[in-house]
Every structure is written in structure tokens, then in C-alpha cells.
Amino acid sequence: MDISRLARDIRKGDRKALAKGITLAENETAKASSLLRTLEPPGRAFVVGVTGPPGTGKSTLVDRLVGLYRRRGLRVGVIAVDPTSPITGGALLGDRVRMERHANDRGVFIRSMASRGWSGGLSRATSQVIQLMDAAGFDVVLLETVGIGQSDIEVVGVSHAVLVVLMPGLGDDVQVSKAGLMEIGDVYVVNKADVEGADALVVSLLGLVRSMRSRSPPVVKVSALTGEGLENLESAIEAIRARFEEGDLEVRLRSASGMIAQTARAVLAERLAHTSRERVNELALMVVKGEITVDAAAGLLLK
Amino acid sequence: MDISRLARDIRKGDRKALAKGITLAENETAKASSLLRTLEPPGRAFVVGVTGPPGTGKSTLVDRLVGLYRRRGLRVGVIAVDPTSPITGGALLGDRVRMERHANDRGVFIRSMASRGWSGGLSRATSQVIQLMDAAGFDVVLLETVGIGQSDIEVVGVSHAVLVVLMPGLGDDVQVSKAGLMEIGDVYVVNKADVEGADALVVSLLGLVRSMRSRSPPVVKVSALTGEGLENLESAIEAIRARFEEGDLEVRLRSASGMIAQTARAVLAERLAHTSRERVNELALMVVKGEITVDAAAGLLLK
Question: Which domains does chain B have, with CATH numbers?
């Protein structure tokens, strides 16, 4: 494969070339890494992570955001990340429907990503795809998770702004706060504003974030389905994007730091997987013989 | 906390002490590690991993296995692993119901585990809990996943025997094989034997595993609900347990290697998380300035 030619085509915004680059990121991160060195992504893309429990309407909301940004003339990439197996993946993402809807809009590029390997590999690939979309000239990248857990929180760690999407009737707020969602949001979205309990959820969220964090992020009530309240969400996101555009280091460093940390972790895991099978077996034998504990063996492996 | 006293109580099979040890594994792996050094787990516990897509009846099957082993007079530990957030966890596991059913049986210990942190932390904690149960004198540990994806496959990598539970109507077999489930099973269980398509699924699974692997694992059809076919499953598992009891290295090394590798990976991730925030920020600044790519920064971080 001719990396410099691929890089040139991606920079031109060629969709097939971008798709090829993304496939590299998914399957051959080392080659994707070399592609990115050639590309020198400009860092112009604003990355919005969208996470939250399943069923809260994240996909519909992402569709709304795509519409909002397209009306502003911005090019939008969407990465739908599903860290689960392909068995549940297809059903949860339903991105084929979405891809059809935007099929004729050259300013939108949608890609869903799942992983067959360790989830760390997915984090690294996601970082690379963001950089590829950036290099291909996309202004905004929406990073959507399927919302089934902890790995989602990991995935959105590479964003400039994180939207946590919730809805009334999810169970008590203590659960939400336990899930780690209270620490990561820049904007809290109460979707399905028409459902009973929406106002109460807004109030309790405001209380929660105020009690837990020094600077309270905004809580906005919307209906992704009807469009109600979207202007409030838009202005909350745009406030962060404005800081991004001004070169605000806090916002910019956040995404870069997240990507570096996740990539480093993936690289470590890969190294461990490749170099030490014999040594692992040797140590496992000592564990089986009762000479050392598993933790001690892991310590020796890392020496 | 007096580690040597806790160790003594766990060795006696004291349930409160075991629970305390498990809480350490969940929250303070370093202390749990020191507890395990004191305990010197004997490696007598046979670990059976139970994985597969959601809705295939894994919990019911695990309950059946608990019954089978209890009738043989063996003590059984159950670890229900849910790598997702607490939001979905409680609903999926339903272990409270099960805990009530076995509440008066001192030969059964059930614990569900979820993670607030990175899923690697969960893997390490799971390894430690297996060793704690081993030290507390449990003969069999059943490690059940909720079946939502790739992290499940990781979790059962610490087992001596892996049961992959499937059922008719999950979608085509290609999806099952893509999910990585075809590589990891020692026994394939087609549950819900009475549902249409069960026989066809058995036939196609047999074809799949024969085409993919040099030694074909058994495929057994059961109904966890009615008990139909359980004797075939039992003998398939017991064939592996017999090898384990004979000290078969292949079986014994498998669990130990899995635990060492997962623990090492978790330790690496923890180190990375703790030592290098300043350095990450420094490198992130270089990325933001466009001086280096994220992958290059990750490389420098690991130097």
C-alpha cells in the first residue's frame, strides 16, 4: 500500500481513501500510525463524545446534532463505537438506517466501530479514526457510544466535550452517580422531556453535580424526537466549541491527553500480548506448583 | 487491618472473612495481593467460565451446575461478573434472587462483581477472588458473565474450562463465529433445547468448530429450565475436571497463564494512570501544537 498516496487522497477529502484509512486503524494500527505521521492531522476537528445508559435516545440526539452542524455548513464525522461483540452490535447501533439517510450528503461521514480484540485496541483505533477524520477536513466529530458501561466512559475520554444523556425513569440517581457519569459530563442532557419525571431529574442532577464538582456543568432538557429544547443544548455545546476555536488549552489538552493515555495503554497491552508467551507459561508453572501467587508472577513478568 | 488474622479466618472457610477479602480485591488490589501472599492459595479449585450472548439462560444453567456439584458434596463459589455500569448491572444479574435461594447452604458462596474503573481492574479483581475462594476451600468456582461482549471473553480467560452457551434464533452462525466465541469454548452448550432450530444449531456449531479447530470440543443440547440433557453437559465438564484433578498441565496452566496476563495488564494500566499525568500533559501540548502525532506521543510516554 502506498501510504503517501493514501495520505494525499485523505487530505483531499476522498471518502474511499478515508474509509481505507479507517480500516487500517481497525486492523493494522501500526500502519495507521505511519499514515498519521504522514498526514500530520491539523487538530481542527472538534470532538463531541455522547454517552449515557442504553435507551436514552443518544442516536436520535446525534442525528439532531448532525443536522444542526450541517445547517451551519460544517462537515461532520460520526463514529458509533460499540465495544461489544458483533452479536449485539448490529442491533444496537442501527447505523445502516442512518447511513442511508445521509447517503447523499458528502458533508457527513458515518462509521461504526466494534472490536474483536481487547477493548484497549478499540480505544486506540478510535483515536486514530478521529485523527483521520480531522485530516480529511471534518470540522466536528461526534463520538457516540452504545451506552452499556464502563468502556463507554473510557471511549469518550478523547473528546473535547462530553454530553451525558439521561432520561426520566432510569432508576434512582444514586445509580447514575455510582456509574461514574457524574464526573465526566460537560453537558448533561435530560432527553425525552415529555416523559413524566423529566423536571424532577433535572433538579436532582443539578443538585448532584453541584455537590460533586467545583464548576457545575449545564443541565439541559430536550426532546431529541420533537426538537424541543435543542437550542439550549446547542448553545451549551457551542460555548465549549468557542473555547476550542480560541485555542483554549484546557479544552484542547483534554482530548489530546485522553488519546495519548489510551494509545499508550493499548500499546502496552499489545507488547505484553506479543513478547511474553513463553515467560508467562514459565511463571504459570510456578503458580501451578504453588511456588508463587498470581500477583507475584505478574510482578515478575513486568520486571 | 490484620492481614494474617484475616487469612487465618478465610482458610477456616469463614464467610464474613471471605467477603471482607473480596471487598479488598474489589477496592484495594494491593492489600488483596498481600493477603494472597499470606494465604498461599492451594490451587485446588476448578474454575468453570460460563459465557455467551445475553438471554441464553446462563444464570439458570449456573444454578443447575451449582445443584449438580452440591449433590456430589462439593463446595461451590459463584462469581457473576458484570463489566458494565451499575445502571444495567443489577437488572441483568438478578443475583439477589439466587442468593436468597442458596442463603441457607453454607457450601455455596455467590458474589457479583461490577467495576467502576477500567475493565482491566475487574479482570485483576476476578483473579484475586478466584484465589480467595480457592484458599477458603471451595472445590469449584463458576465464573458467569452477563454476555455482552468482548470483555466477557477476556473475563473467562482465567478458567480451566469454558462453557459457551448459545440458543436457537440468535441470528446466523457467522455472527457467532465473528464474536470470537468459536475460539474459546471447551464445551458448547445449546440451551433451550425445546426451541425450534436447536438441532440445526447443534449441527452448524459442530461444522464450525470442526472447520476452525484441530480438536473439536463437544456440543451438547440442554434445557437448563427442565433439566433435559444436563447429564451430557455434566460428563463433558467432568472429563475436563478429571484432567484437572490428575494434574494435567495443559488444563492447569491455562487458568494460571490467563490470570497472570490479565493481572500484568491491569498493573501496567494502573502504573500508567498513576505516574505520568504531568508527562502526558507535556506531550499533549506538543500534540496540540501539531509537533507530533498522538501515536508518537504515546511512544514517547512509554520510553
Answer: 41-254 (3.40.50.300)
